Task: inverse folding
């Protein structure tokens, strides 16, 4: 324990410098979904590879048809487990830009009246701040002991925010290199400011884009309004039909594979201190909008959804234009649970749309990723050790929770590499990830580093 | 008739130069709805005032809170009628730009294999080409006779494509100056390539923009998808409820004031050579999408509509973003007929939306113009003279038709200035007004000038 104490102290002493390194990374606008930022994505990958090399990892960029992966290896003591750490260096777009109080890629460390600090920038929480907690823990370990307590492989992706198109082929092509005894994924949140969490269930995701086409060109709504099909009207009718009055999704077969909660998990979730009013109140809402007969935690952790993430058609600029558009599109995501099959959901959605097309309209589709939900074992040895280590670091013991978001890689590690994955992260619900003014708590960044040092030490112990 | 013949010959001889003048006007991107083009609107107004002064009009720009009006006067013989001519120099936006085959503000005169020509540019048909037909007729009259056969006031607006916000106050403030014996409005179309038309009924217009607000910020659809209200979903549900399965608008009170067709007008319309298949086929459609029990001509001329002209919410860029937007909006126009009251329609729509808002959502509204439908007398002396003059010029006699579009000024001339208005224009259905590759037929431009010369001569005759 003396060794661990000295490593924790090293983390404490070097916090300022670790913040500087994070800010350097945050200054790189690595927006993966927008091709205009491809060079910036590569720059972020190179920054991380260089940093890992400086710590003593054998690190390199690996090309993909999209943005490069970063893979770095460090050996460990004979007999110690081999740990794979996963994070992603790409970030979400920043619009609407006018709602940011500082520039998204110009990180600001600001202090609240109570003395707590936070780092504000796109990617500060999702996922650059999170992935750096692990790298900083490794750095401190090396600085204090000259070694790492486990064999460590670090695997950083650059396409997580854009559907991870290169991930599956890459995992398949590098199965041997990437398979470890356990995977650690740092892209999730704490239960609350004092309570760390390990996510044991995550929703899957199917991303779809549908475009409704009607007339062969944009029309004047005076000349043609009435007899001409309006694709915005057709699209609205179809979207409106996807949910019934009770909030259930009406697409035939949608709930196939959805299971009721395991009674033990149900009890655990019911035991969590959770306020629906606070959860919704923080975002200006008060009444749950999901399936009427489900609690908010169920709606967000164990029930599937259909969400409309974007819509556009016709004239959307200033003023008015009396046009009937030739086409209109929507971006739609389905969150999946239990054993829902992503490809079946995609096919059912497309059938649902196609069956509702009136005469003279056609629909085209584009896919934006697909991943099944994942369910982790809640009593593996690695999980038990991590749970204890986290409980040692934070004011309150670690909670086992569900996650509404989709972290496709967690399922893939299980299915493609046969590897158990622990989802441990230090984000908070109010971090505003994917939104303007994204932030990461200084306590998350600091205690996150300390948490990983404890977890690595615990894994290494017999 | 010798005088008229010489004027018509003068028009024929000067056609090339009149096309050059039109092209100079078309090069000015006077998009009124976009504040970025305010200077260009003023430049177009000045161009016209200068041209009218050169012909001998006393012409000037008149300031408004928006874009300036052009007013020009020319005296006429004792006892001859006083004619007010109306057109508009502003144009629609040009998006989607990538569908244009030439630059929208770089006019191109192109020739078809059969020798017919057309002028391609934004505004070539709506309304710069049309208004120039009248100005060129006046120019030829002056060139040949040194005078005009009627007293003429030319009144050109610069806000027709953006709801004419300054029109009513301007008419009220200049009632005496602008009131004539008859108004001529050149912003409508021919029945077909060979058949001129006078429009005797026009639909009115109410423009609305509704924004649905839900959460206080954009949300991650994994973290909040399920319990959080999604404004795109709410908006889609509301828009989808506006039409029933038979194509009727469901807003309570919407059909109040809608009258059935006068039997004489009905018979006239039924006698027009009209092919529903051709009308829809030209725009890539085949089945009328309006009220099921109405003919296409009724759907577009004598029945009211609700059209969705634009919609936007959430992430609409390349790729995908798993966001639940804080807000989403739609631009909606209602075409009105008979005695529908624009303000009642607006209020009924807003009530319809507000009543459908779920908990935690609110709606904000912006208005984009309002004008009632208008119905013209089909047997006034001016109308009879114009009908004969048009029939003399074109291969086939003039048709009396309805118009699906809204020309608010026609109603205002009647209601505010007590003046009968004749709607005579030379646009064709395939002119693609408001769309990419807008064009004006050379025959429209040429015979349009000759038509006005004939009409002015007919009005002057006892």
Result:
């Amino acid at each position: 324990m003396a060794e661990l104490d000295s490593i924790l102290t090293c983390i404490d002493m070097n916090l300022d410098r670790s913040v500087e390194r994070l800010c350097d990374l945050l200054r790189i606008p690595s927006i993966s979904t927008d091709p205009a930022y491809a060079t910036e994505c590569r720059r972020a990958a190179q920054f991380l590879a260089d940093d890992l090399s400086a710590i003593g990892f054998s690190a390199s960029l690996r090309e993909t048809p999209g943005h490069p992966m970063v893979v770095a290896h460090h050996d460990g003591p004979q007999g110690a487990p081999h740990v794979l750490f996963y994070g992603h260096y790409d970030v979400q777009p920043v619009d609407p830009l006018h709602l940011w109080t500082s520039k998204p890629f110009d990180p600001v460390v600001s202090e609240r009246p109570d003395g707590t600090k936070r780092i504000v920038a796109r990617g500060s929480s999702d996922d650059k701040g999170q992935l750096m907690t692990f790298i900083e823990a490794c750095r401190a370990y090396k600085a204090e002991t000259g070694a790492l307590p486990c064999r460590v492989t670090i695997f950083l992706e650059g396409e997580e925010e854009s559907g991870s198109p290169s991930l599956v082929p890459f995992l398949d092509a590098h199965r041997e290199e990437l398979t470890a005894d356990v995977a650690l994924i740092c892209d999730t949140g704490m239960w609350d400011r004092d309570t760390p969490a390990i996510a044991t269930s995550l929703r899957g995701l199917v991303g779809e884009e549908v475009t409704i086409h009607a007339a062969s060109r944009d029309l004047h709504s005076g000349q043609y309004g009435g007899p001409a099909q309006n694709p915005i009207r057709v699209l609205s009718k179809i979207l409106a039909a996807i949910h019934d009055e009770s909030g259930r999704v009406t697409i035939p077969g949608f709930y196939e594979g959805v299971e009721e909660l395991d009674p033990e998990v149900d009890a655990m979730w019911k035991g969590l201190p959770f306020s629906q009013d606070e959860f919704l109140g923080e975002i200006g809402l008060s009444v749950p909008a999901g399936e009427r007969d489900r609690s908010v935690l169920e709606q967000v952790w164990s029930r599937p959804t259909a969400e409309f993430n974007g819509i556009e058609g016709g004239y959307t600029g200033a003023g008015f234009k009396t046009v009937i558009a030739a086409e209109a599109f929507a971006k739609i995501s389905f969150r999946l649970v239990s054993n829902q099959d992503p490809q079946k959901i995609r096919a059912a959605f497309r059938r649902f749309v196609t069956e509702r097309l009136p005469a003279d309209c056609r629909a085209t589709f584009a896919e934006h990723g697909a991943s099944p939900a994942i369910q982790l074992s809640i009593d593996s040895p690695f999980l038990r050790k991590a749970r204890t280590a986290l409980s040692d670091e934070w004011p309150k013991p670690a909670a086992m929770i569900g996650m509404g978001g989709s972290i496709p890689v967690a399922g893939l590690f299980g299915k493609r590499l046969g590897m158990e994955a622990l989802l441990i992260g230090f984000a908070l619900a109010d971090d505003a990830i994917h939104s303007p003014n994204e932030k990461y708590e200084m306590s998350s960044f600091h205690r996150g580093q300390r948490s990983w040092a404890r977890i690595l030490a615990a894994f290494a112990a017999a």
Remarks:
- The CA atoms of residues 387 and 398 of chain A lie 6 Å apart.
- Residues 2-202+375-460 of chain A form a domain with the Aminopeptidase fold (CATH 3.40.630.10).
